[in-house]
């Protein structure tokens, strides 16, 4: 029969357990491999594993006229050797190439994670240093919630308690830049 | 309210006990509403005392009167080792945390800390005599001059007491609730700011684990797929050879069966021809009829 050194009848990968640990992007990659492997798995499970045993002696008794033909058939059948073959080396190299690609991808991911962790630590340290909100003093509100509070001691802006948007346009600042009262910019002073 | 500490709980408790005793006394009476007078019923309603036929105390609008409010949950305190700046001196200048309750006072307006310094030396009366004497001196020397409208302060104090005794509890509860909501708003802003960092940590951890699993599993699955492809091709070849050998054996069996069938057909054909040839002869017909008649005679007997 076959002289193959190693035969694989089923995949050694636990697909469901492996898929649980993957994020959707990687699960998509694994799904493609699983699809191809599934195709071959179904073919393997349907087809016979080995050549069937044929009782030529019984056949010779049943068919004495064809004993010569059966003899030659038996010799041919017993001498049949189906080559198993091996995975080509170039295909295995492609797997190695994928491994290299994946390692490069992992390195990039680690670099991104390191940068992101730095940013995350900044935010976390900021709020770790802050006093409890219940014990905020006046300047803490301006420091920690600049979108909601302002401090006119050092911020150049007009008080806008009703939030009507006085600081959104430079009109007021331009209007009152000149200390003279109620003077329009286009008025000619030629008295 | 800080002023509620000046009221004497014992007096109120004593009055309450007396009222409860009155209710208990009436409960012993025969159980009918007629035993309690009209005005006594009104008094029970105002005090929140259940009538003998009632199982629960009625809801009264005066339940919150003369009631002292206390926070269900204290504000979180500043950590002991909290430093706004590394150089801050926490011993002499601790962080000015917000107190939950106002400090204790005496006579509605004087801080208790002014009195405790004297009390060790002069006893309880000393501080009152000191501040009273000081006040008298200031008034006598016209250093503290009363305005003609100053006497209205007494009325304002009484009004304040009236409001704080009646609505103080609800005001305090409402203010506490509003304060909690306000602080909750800021805490929500903080959580929103931290959410991105927390989500990033979770997402990056999941991706790192996913990369590790993929690195572990993918090369194995790829190689297994190729091996399975080899196995599939091999089994395909096995099937081909099996089909071929079976086909040839079936051919040989078919040959033998055909030969046997042909022999049988020839034999049957020969027999049929002989029989027909014999039947067509006239002698056979006569011989057959004689035999038939003899058989019929035998049957008749």
UniProtKB/TrEMBL annotation, chain A:
Family under the similarity heading: Belongs to the ATPase d subunit family.
GO MF: proton transmembrane transporter activity
Subcellular location: Mitochondrion inner membrane
Pfam families: Mt_ATP-synt_D
Domain of life of the organism encoding this protein: Eukaryota
Organism encoding this protein: Caenorhabditis elegans
InterPro entries: ATP_synth_F0_dsu_mt (IPR008689), ATP_synth_F0_dsu_sf_mt (IPR036228)
Single GO BP term: proton motive force-driven ATP synthesis
UniProt cross-references to SUPFAM superfamilies, sorted A to Z: ATP synthase D chain-like
Protein name: ATP synthase subunit d, mitochondrial
Keywords, comma-separated and alphabetical: CF(0), Hydrogen ion transport, Ion transport, Membrane, Mitochondrion, Mitochondrion inner membrane, Transport
GO CC aspect terms: mitochondrial inner membrane; proton-transporting ATP synthase complex
